[in-house]
Amino acid sequence: MIQGLMQQQPLMISSIIEFAERWYPDVEVVSRTVEGPIHRCTYKELGKRARRLADSLKSLGISAGDSVGTLAWNGYRHLELYYGVSGSGAVLHTVNPRLFSEQLSYVINHANDKVMFADLTFVPLLEALADQLPNIEHYVIMTDREHMPETTLNSVICYEDLIKSGDPDYQWPVFDENSASSICYTSGTTGNPKGVVYSHRSTLIHTIASSIPNGLNLSGSDSVLLVVPQFHVNSWGVSYAAPMNGCKLVLPGPAMDGSSIHDLLESEKCTLSLAVPTIWMMLTGFLRESGKKLPHMKRVVIGGSAVPEAMIRCFEQEYDVQVIHAWGMTETSPLGTLNFLMPHLQELDYEAQMPIKLTQGKSIFGVDIRIVDDNNNPLAHDGIAFGRLQAKGHWVTSGYLGDEDNKAVGSDGWFDTGDVATINPDGYMMITDRTKDVIKSGGEWISSIEIENLAVGHPAIAEAAVIAIPHPKWDERPLVVAVIADGQEIDKTKLLSHLAESLAKWQIPDDVVFVDELPHGATGKLNKLKLREDFSDYKFPTT
Length: 543
Ligand code: ADP
Known about the structure:
Layout: H1 14-23, E1 28-32, E2 38-42, H2 43-56, E3 67-71, H3 76-88, E4 91-94, H4 101-110, E5 113-118, H5 123-129, E6 138-141, E7 156-158, H6 159-164, E8 180-185, E9 195-199, H7 200-211, E10 223-226, H8 233-236, H9 238-244, E11 248-251, H10 258-267, E12 272-275, H11 277-290, E13 299-302, H12 309-318, E14 322-328, E15 335-338, H13 343-346, H14 350-357, E16 362-363, E17 367-372, E18 387-393, E19 415-423, E20 429-434, E21 439-441, E22 444-446, H15 448-456, E23 461-471, E24 475-484, H16 492-500, E25 511-514, H17 528-534
Parallel strand pairs: 1-11, 3-4, 3-5, 4-8, 5-6, 6-7, 10-11, 10-12, 12-13, 13-14, 24-25
Antiparallel strand pairs: 1-2, 8-9, 14-15, 15-16, 17-18, 18-19, 19-20, 21-22, 23-24
Helix pairs in contact: 1-2, 1-9, 2-3, 7-9, 10-11
The chain binds adenosine-5'-diphosphate.
């Protein structure tokens, strides 16, 4: 072998902000603050503040490898922490404040966070939890002196006071690119949350790959409204990808209702935004009521759960905004697949494109996927065979924090996602269920997601969940639990005959129960575990 003669540089997260500071110094980061007003700064200013922060971490006793927690909305100070903490060699643990309180103390203790940075909003939450957080040495409140709250927390520091003493010319250290940079916990819908530990290397490669045209297609012409929380899977990587591509970055703080989101999309001339379907339901509802438009928006990235067909049609046909449907998870950093139409599919008419648009899309370079049966045999890419979805690649987890047995990844190196999917001959992957949610009826699998999508396709249904109920003859049969849309009327017979139009006879649910609301978890997704508990005594009328 002959060695290549190119320079070796460790892939460092700090290099992203250093680049933006130097080459896109005047590009803005705009934040709606917890205190109220809109805050504006540039990458040059933000880079300096991230250096000050990195330098001042020493005064808190933080050194390389120590874990630093955040409980914060999307904003410029949280972005500074993304760079200041990881860039200094410490590890950023972005805590999801929507976890239940036992899960919050579990993840903060499990990650061994030594310092907690928190927005004003979360001070009461921390006060209630502080007794159970023995390892936290300091609480840094992410505000200025003027807004510092009265609090019962010990060792409280004001963020602006802290960074004032830091060196704005701090030099970012260079170290092993495989060092941990950040930790995110899965939302733990089964058992305790599990810690996924990203490295500088995995983050840099994910950021570069996610920017390409078949990824998020980012460029310096974009103004990006980042609605995906910075506490959810590294904000889908966009807190890194935006500065890397010189994009203007708009951070909405705690206000995620339709009107507040629309205000920012309009005032900051946003061309791209990213969020889960629930957020877009609120926005499209607001647009319909107010008659407002989306004049600057070109693309919207939707993931985290399946995009309803009505949402794709609404964005594309009513507002001329391209929908990019994406799939991923905490364990995949998160990007795994994105939906872009290949040229022969672009030639089809819109109706014929729709079944493809509803899929989760194709793998991007850097992460490979496959579907397998229960014996780990790969299944055909025929769009019909469905099996366990597995992933492998540069930014896929190799094991959870503290899990010495390393149960996450099989001996062949494939990570089992817990999703069930098909892959069609063009490589478009379609999630048909979570392994634990699929309904096993008489040896056949019934997709709960397929029935839910059909149910919400009825105009009188606002939200629906389908769960398995034990059945003496068939093992399990599907039950629909649905919420009726405001001002609409529907009964069980009508909903079942609507479903019967698109389902085989044996797939039609055995019953429907209407409820006022469905339970949701920390990331806004349906909490089917809770629903199954709520319906544990339920019996079908016929059994
Ligand atoms: P958590 O595991 O904390 O709920 P994740 O973001 O890691 O949060 O969730 C990952 C799971 O979300 C995936 O395994 C998949 O089941 C679901 N998911 C993500 N994106 C999509 C999508 N576009 N369509 C359907 N399901 C999705």
